[in-house]
Write a structure and sequence with these properties.
two-stranded antiparallel ribbon; tRNA_m1G_MTases_N; binds 3-thiophen-2-yl-1H-pyrazol-5-amine; elongated; methyltransferase; EC 2.1.1.228; 5-stranded parallel β-sheet; tRNA processing; alpha/beta; tRNA_m1G_MeTrfase_C_sf
């Protein structure tokens, strides 16, 4: 998979050189390109935004630099991901789908937004997904992009050593994860549930599933199908 990011804060993504994704990049599983939107401007001040037509507070990102940035990155296989509070909520299912794509381009805009014609133009050349990280407002798309790259990147085949560990995570089967414990068996007068020390694998699996259901009912009843 190749990932390109267009942003006015390219240094923000330096952290992607380390950790899990750093290793995936070393192994050639994921290629990453970070592009400074200002490199696609030609005026002395490298201007990327301007006042909104129709008035109103804030600034809107100009279409010209974005058009050139898209020209430099888009391919027919690209999925353009536009982080925005006005997008479809990001989910584990979306991360799974996007992890199978060949090329993702993340367009990091300011909250006041990117000129709508850029999104419309991108949609004439590639698949575009306007995605929200949640119902709250960030100052720019960079934090949302970082979160999505982590959620997607870890699902790209070959990135995680033991793919089995992915199947029992929260939201993988639509449920929250069960509680986890490790040594010591008693800590500050709190002991690990006996079933986990029993060696009875079926009893352990049943207990963990029940814990998932109980936790999901308590914390995220909205995730439960009607019959659960
Ligand atoms: N979920 C979400 C995305 C955002 C963005 C703000 C600016 C660009 S993207 N805020 N909240």
């Amino acid at each position: 998979m190749r990932i390109d990011i267009v942003t006015i804060f390219p240094d923000f993504f330096g952290v992607l050189d380390i950790s899990l994704l750093g290793k995936a990049r070393e192994r050639g599983i994921i290629e990453l390109g970070v592009h400074d939107l200002r490199d696609f401007t030609y005026d002395r001040h490298r201007t990327v935004d301007d006042t909104p037509y129709g008035g109103g507070a804030g600034m809107v990102m100009r279409p010209e630099p974005w058009g050139e940035a898209l020209d430099a990155t888009l391919t027919p296989e690209t999925v353009v991901i536009v982080p925005t509070p006005a997008g479809v909520p990001f989910t584990q299912a979306a991360a799974r789908e996007l992890a199978l794509e060949k090329h993702l381009v993340f367009t990091c805009g300011r909250y006041e937004g990117i000129d709508q014609r850029v999104i419309d133009y991108a949609a004439s050349r590639a698949r575009v997904r306007e995605i929200s990280l949640g119902d709250y407002v960030l100052n720019g798309g960079e934090v949302a992009t970082m979160a999505m790259i982590e959620a997607i990147g870890r699902l790209v085949p070959g990135v995680i050593g033991n793919p089995e560990s992915l199947t029992e995570e929260s939201h993988e089967q639509g449920l929250l994860e069960y509680p986890s414990y490790t040594k010591p068996s008693t800590w500050r007068e709190r002991s690990v549930p006996d079933v986990l020390l029993s060696g009875n694998h079926k009893a352990i699996a049943d207990w963990r599933h029940e814990q998932q259901l109980e936790r999901t009912r308590r914390v995220r009843p909205d995730l439960l199908p009607d019959d659960q």
